[in-house]
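In this section we walk through a basic example: taking a raw amino acid sequence and producing a predicted 3D structure, encoded as discrete structure tokens. The instruction is simple. Fold the sequence below.
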Amino acid sequence: MDAAQQRGGTNASPFLWFIQKPFPLVRLHRETIRLSFNSAGRNWLYARCRNMASPRTITIVALSFALGLFFVFMGTIKLTPRLSKDAYSEMKRAYKSYAKALPGLKKIGISSVLLRKIIGSLEVGCGVVLTLVPGRPKDVANFLLLLVMLAVLFFHQLVGDPLKRYAHALVFGILLTCRLLIARQSDDRPEREDSREEQHINDQEKNKVKQS
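The resulting token sequence is shown next.
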């Protein structure tokens, strides 16, 4: 029995072999996890961290935050005089001129006050979504604000305002367009790349398990 154990333990009892080498299955499983994490796991973490800290993601977050705060501010000015009485009075005067230039609004029951409140509420709501809400709602809010900016530019052109009066709407309309395009480019990336990466990682894990 001792000679057989000294030659390699081929004839030893399985119980004695388990006692001499405690928990071989646990060690094998731990070694498999270590090998998998060293190769596939590290690649997976690197790919996810790279996507999270990509320049495109940073640009989208920065634009969303800045644009959201701006439109919350502008919408609040249209709705209440608490921030600035002068700006609120100017908004009231401007929307009265817009309503006069569009007599069709009165026919459908939209007064200058209602028009101002609608646009102001849209700006506040969409600005909050851009600033705080993650995911696809940001793109919806971005699109709605872009429509609002186009409507505001149309109003300014309709009453013949000079460029300095609607330059801010033009600039922020361009920024909204840029943010939407960048966001759509990141969403339109072929999902095959992610599935390809996952398949590659799974293949590496299987190979490491087989080798171990």
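Looking at the output, two observations stand out. The mean pLDDT is 76. The two ends are 30 Å apart (CA to CA). In the next section we compare this with other chains.
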